[in-house]
Design a protein that fits this description.
The strands form 5 sheets. Strands 6-13-12-11-10-7-8-9 form an 8-stranded mixed β-sheet, with helices on both faces. It is globular. Strand 7, helix 8 and strand 8 form a beta-alpha-beta unit. The longest helix has 26 residues. It has 16 helices and 17 strands. The protein is of the alpha/beta class. Helix 5 packs across helix 13.
Amino acid sequence: MSRVISAQRVATLVGDFPRSPAYLGLAESLRVLIGDGRVGIDVRLPSERDLTGVLDVSRTTVTRAYEVLRESGYAEARRGSGTFTTVPGGQRRAHDRALMPGHGGRDVIDLNCAAHSAPPGLIEAYRRATEELPAYLSGPGYFPLGVPALQARIAASYDARGLPTVPEQVMVTAGALAAASVVAQAYTAPGERVVVESPTYPNATQAVQHAGARLVPATVDPDGWDLDALAATLRQTSPRLAYLIPDFQNPTGHLMSDSQREELATALARTRTVVVADEAHQALALEPELAGAMPRPLAAYADDAITIGSASKSYWGGLRLGWVRAPLADMDRLIHARIGLDLGAPVLEQLVLADLMDRADEVLPVHRRRLLAGRDALVAALGEHLPEWRFRIPDGGLALWCELPAALGTATTVEAERRGLVVAPGPVFAVEGGLDRFVRIPWTASPEVLTEAVRRVATAWEHVSGDATRPATRSAAGRVMVA
């Protein structure tokens, strides 16, 4: 499924690349574009003659730049076909196969993980962070609460959203899952109840279960939360915690309004339940008008709330950084729980994230536009190839929660995998089973890849739905979800 990128598009992407010498500047710019996904893998680059014309450089400059790309593993020449993009070690090196359910292959489309490639500007952020790193090398490098510079920026982001926060209320962790584990260790004891949405993000519920807590499901309907039913669950079970995703809920994409948050906070206070609000998708409002008018944090309505944040969805999963925002009085409890798990997140990545947050107004809009293009392409393809599937189009987040006409989600995803597409069936997100009428499809790949993915799942659906008695050959419970 090789693609072609035009010379004009390459010229737009490389922009005013360094020209001293020009061939190295062009090669480096192309390497960055390939590395962060703006130019995909197995894409045919423009001919040397075409690129020479649009860049206004010599033929030798382009020839030597392509040679540098090939020598560094970012391109390969195919006789009679041209020069194609690669990554060092081959495409498999771009992914950790241990986190993926299938064996993979050159043409496999993996949408099991709802996460995008790195945003433009990440390498520059690493370079700037590396310049700051020497100031930290004289110390031990352990920051159980986080590098102060990053704590300050995270606190400021809550201030800007209407939730006054001081840096001492922030603990930086090695990802949002690590944050969930710290919170579960700090706030629950074996056997205590924790209310969780169903469907919900499965890795987070596993982190809660590992602490010995008992999960109590609260149903999230395809059309949203039933707050009356949730309040009844809180009254009847007296849980210690409630783990909820109010911002573009994973996997449904629902966004809880300010009035709903206020109503929920009242119900939580009546049962003395501490809410853990997972805000991993909070920055992913895809419509510009919504991005500047998101609801206030749930913690603005519930004083004792714990908030979990993440850099993985809004910036890049490879940073492996998350955080906990909690009342000052609870920070000692969180530190004691945390040091039993680790002693802090990597310093360099924290400096990178601090740099990116300083430039959020530049980085996030570009990221959101990529996601919006993917969402719209996915919606269009499903409308064309699977008009009988139902879904609500979220205003943000990363995925569509698709309802099938029959409970064949697992069978469809198993069949799709045979056709080179990996997606997650509904039961993976269920707390107590069920939800086999659903499939989650992220829009985090390019529009072209998403269109092909829908063609493959449509073929799988046609095959499976034509023989409704055909059982799935592999249980959805055996899948490994990474996002």
